[in-house]
From TrEMBL:
Boundaries of every AAA+ ATPase domain copy: 40-214
Domain of life where this protein originates: Bacteria
Origin species: Bradyrhizobium zhanjiangense
Protein name, entry field: AAA+ ATPase domain-containing protein
């Protein structure tokens, strides 16, 4: 049966086709990117409070998908990944390199803040992604935005109108790059719900929420259109050491690895002593009151405990103090890049002390 076409719209707008119920086109087959969880064409929200390691989880998913490795025990559909690093670009690139096992894995990273509320910018991004399709001879399986707030400049996340524009932009991108699932990272508010207008949650196909635990982060499916809700996954944030170049000094970054609620199955987690950054994070947690710690007090304690120390015994006291202060600063930067702390010249904020995310401030 041929469907009637009752009317079309002028001015270049697409025609509206009406289908008889007994002659509906066959729906597209749901192509899963992560088995039982994420599929091509879907828009996924990865949400949680600051400091829960959302970016580390997204980066783990990116590498697993590009390399064809299981993600949290689930098989994946291997394919290129596009990672829009709208904040902390340098830290994102380091962490992706640190956890990759295949140097040639097709992961593309962009230091960009496209405005998802502007359809012209969304279509420009889709055109750039089409070049990945040509180069890889396969279109991406994932497009990740880290974070959503940085990709909606000038818009109010509490406005249903503004958030509707952003979600429409993501829908257009999903249509333009139909091979990919689109994932965005976003923050929860003080009540634990996804921050901003309810238009956001209403428009996504899947919401994954990250919760803090006793050393283990819990990922929960809190909304799903096509898969079971209340699914749970567990990860642990682990320090990983790597070198940018064979002769460079080692660096430590925080990465997400699969864990179990009882920590019985940790075969994929490196067996390593705590890094300096991990020790300093524990020290800051210990000294913090209501999530706030004095930076100089933490530095002094790190020196007393030997977490930071000068390797040269012949250095002057002034030089030794300078060297240990620099070691401490670098560790703080690593923890900040991992979204675990915030700090300035006097104060370190951790856990409940972390401030609400500021969508349009400097990184």
């Amino acid at each position: 049966m041929v469907d009637p076409t009752p009317f079309t719209r002028n001015r270049g707008r697409p025609a509206i086709a009406l289908h008889r119920l007994d002659a509906l086109p066959q729906p597209p087959v749901r192509e899963e990117i992560v088995q039982g969880l994420i599929a091509a064409g879907e828009v996924v929200a990865l949400v949680g409070p600051a400091g829960t390691g959302k970016s580390a989880v997204a980066q783990r998913l990116a590498i697993c998908t590009a390399e064809g490795r299981p993600f949290l025990g689930r098989p994946v559909l291997q394919g290129p990944v596009v990672y829009i690093a709208a904040e902390r670009w340098g830290g994102t690139a380091r962490r992706l390199r640190a956890i990759q096992k295949k140097i040639t894995a097709p992961v593309y990273i962009a230091k960009a803040r496209p405005n998802l509320g502007e359809i012209a910018e969304v279509k420009e991004l889709a055109e750039r992604i089409s070049r990945v399709c040509e180069h890889e001879r396969r279109c991406p399986s994932l497009i990740i935005f880290d974070t959503l707030a940085r990709c909606m400049p000038g818009l109010d996340e509490n406005s249903a109108r503004d958030m509707g524009k952003v979600m429409e932009g993501l829908a257009v991108l999903a249509d333009e790059v139909s091979s990919a699932a689109i994932i965005f990272i976003h923050h929860t508010g003080k009540n634990g719900d996804t921050r901003g207008s309810t238009a956001l949650l209403g428009a996504v196909d899947l919401e994954l929420q990250v919760h803090n635990g006793n050393g283990v982060k819990r990922l929960e499916v809190t909304k799903a259109n096509s898969v079971a809700e209340d699914q749970e996954f567990f990860v642990r944030l682990v320090p990983v050491e790597f070198r940018e170049h064979p002769n460079s000094d080692p660096e430590t970054v925080i990465a997400a690895f699969e864990a179990g609620p009882d920590e019985c199955d940790r075969t994929d987690i490196p067996d390593a002593a705590p890094s300096r950054s991990e020790l300093i994070l524990g020290l800051v947690d210990e000294l913090a009151v209501d999530g706030k710690a004095d930076r100089m007090a933490c530095l002094s304690a790190a020196r007393d405990r030997g977490i930071v120390k000068d390797a040269r015994s012949d250095n002057s006291p002034e030089k030794a103090l300078k060297n240990t202060a620099e070691q401490f600063r670098k560790a703080l930067v690593e923890l900040k890049d991992a979204d675990l702390i915030r700090f300035d010249n006097t104060t370190i904020l951790v856990g409940v002390g972390l401030p609400p995310h500021k969508p349009h401030g400097p990184p």
